[in-house]
Amino acid sequence: MEKISDKVIGRLTQYHSILGDCIKNNIMTVTSSVLAQLLKIDDSQVRKDISMLNNAGKSRVGYDSIKLKETIEKTLGFSNPKNAFIIGAGNLGSALAKYNGFEDYGLSVLALFDIDKNKIGTKINSKPVFDIKDLPYYTKDMNVEIGILTIPADFAQEIADYAVKSKIKYIWNFSPKVLNLPSDIEVWNENLMGNFLQFSYKISKNS
Question: How buried is 44 (Cβ within 10 angstroms: 0-12 exposed, 13-18 middle, 19+ buried)?
Answer without folding.
Answer: exposed
